[in-house]
Specification:
Length: 452
């Protein structure tokens, strides 16, 4: 957006003429061969291209023009790009955030209202820099993974009931390592549509050689980008680890890339990036873990039950006897879940703070909302995490396959679940107070800078 600086000495009518000219120039920018093409190339073509997961291609003006009204609708409603996270509620500074800015949304809406003009036909729009769809998401910044742990291959039929597989895979690690980043990646485009989830657990042999579960390694559900650990934390992968895969497959798949035929030798991989050996011994490094935090409420006799044409809300309460930092939040549900939120309750003051809200949730896009470390929520000892999730088993839910059904808590795609995956850094009081002090100092500097 161009800014018109005030020019001293000009008459009001002259200033008005300059403003009108600036507005006309702004209108000229709303062309496919210009700002609009850049927005679409940088945010849409990654999926909407030949061989991509989008149901139509947006690589040329001729491909895009018939879909312009639908693009306007989806963008204005913040349904596309597919990153459901409410604007203006709680923390907005996130890593791996796909959302368009309001300025970009306004430009796309105005472009369609103006008739979706092409612009100069001789202009050559720079092609988008598109990653290989089978490349690791963090490869550009971190290089290739230091360790890849593949699952056993499994054939997925075109139709039938949900499938599960649980098996162990050795990692070959000979020393403890701190994880810098982790991504789970179904191999191949069609594979992404049949893998409902692929959880991984850390098992280490005890003194008798018996495998014992130590921790959650990571969690994958359809559409998840990956996890980045902030500096100064260690999520440990111990020496001798065997990964226990816990995978759920949906025959036939979901979404535009569902294969509709048997998918042979389906493999899912974990890519791991490590800090240098000995990182955990660095001063000021705290332990981080990822855990499942369940919800309650909406339960009868311990079971989640959603009646036909009905609604249910669940909420879970989780506290710690030491201060913590919340590094990421990923709600989980299936086809009837519509919304989720994360709050913090402070018992000493009785205050509740809303951290994140997702009001248009979809089971085809599970996002781990990774908070920028400078604003990630700090929870004092005794503070309570409140996880809320809402379910809609009516015909108003566009993802609902059958509102006449009773829906129960369970692992099948047609069942429901109520929990969130949350990454927590476990602090001590000195570490907590240091982060609080650093943030207050940063806030004071920002305020002082704004006074200049």
């Amino acid at each position: 957006m161009r800014v018109v600086k005030p020019l001293l000495g000009l008459a009001p009518i002259a200033l008005l003429a300059i403003q009108i000219q600036a507005q006309a120039q702004d209108s000229d920018d709303l062309l496919y061969h210009g700002e609009i093409g850049r927005i679409l190339n940088e945010n849409c073509v990654v999926c909407h291209r030949e061989g991509g997961i989008g149901p139509m291609q947006f690589e040329t003006y001729e491909q895009i023009r018939p879909w312009a009204p639908l693009i306007q609708l989806k963008v204005a409603n913040r349904e596309m790009p597919p990153y459901a996270y409410d604007e203006g509620i709680g923390i907005q500074d996130l890593k791996g955030d796909w959302r368009l800015s309001q300025e970009e949304i306004d430009k796309l809406v105005a472009w369609v209202n103006n008739g979706s003009p092409l612009g100069d036909p001789d202009f050559v729009l720079p092609p988008p820099d598109l990653p290989d769809p089978d490349e690791w998401n963090f490869a550009a910044a971190l290089g290739q993974p230091d360790l890849i742990v593949p699952s056993e291959p499994i054939d997925i039929p075109a139709t039938g009931n949900d499938l599960w597989s649980k098996h162990f895979v050795p990692t070959g690690l000979t020393e403890d390592r701190c994880i810098k980043a982790v991504q789970v990646k179904p191999v191949g485009l069609q594979s992404k549509s049949v893998v409902h989830h692929a959880n991984s657990h850390v098992y280490v042999p005890d003194e008798n050689g018996e495998l014992q579960r130590e921790a959650q390694l990571t969690e994958y559900a359809m559409g998840k980008w990956g996890e980045l650990m902030p500096d100064g934390v260690c999520r440990t992968l111990p020496a001798g680890t065997q990964v226990m895969w816990d995978m759920h497959f949906y025959p036939g798949g979901l979404g535009a890339t569902a294969p509709g035929a048997i998918l042979e030798d389906n493999v899912v991989e974990i890519g791991l990036w490590f800090h240098e050996p000995g990182y955990e011994e660095t001063a000021g490094v705290y332990k981080q873990d990822l855990r499942l935090y369940p919800g309650r409420g909406g339960y009868e006799n311990g079971h989640l039950i959603i009646p036909p044409h009905g609604y249910v809300m669940t909420q879970g309460f989780h506290s710690f006897d030491h201060p913590v930092r919340v590094d990421s939040f990923q709600p989980h549900g299936h086809l009837r879940m519509r919304a989720a939120s994360l709050e913090i309750f402070y018992p000493e003051t009785g205050r509740t703070e809303q951290i994140s809200q997702i009001s248009n949730w979809s089971a085809t896009w599970h996002h781990s909302h990774i908070y920028d470390p400078d604003v990630a929520p700090l929870v004092p000892a005794g503070g309570v995490l409140v996880v809320k999730q809402w379910y809609d088993n009516t015909a108003d839910n566009p993802n609902n396959p059958d509102p006449d059904q009773w829906v129960y808590g369970g692992s099948r795609t047609g069942d429901e679940m109520s929990h969130a995956w949350i990454a927590i850094t476990h602090l001590d009081e000195p570490g907590y107070e240091q982060i609080v002090a650093e943030r207050k100092e940063q806030e004071a500097r920002s305020v002082a800078g704004n006074d200049d």
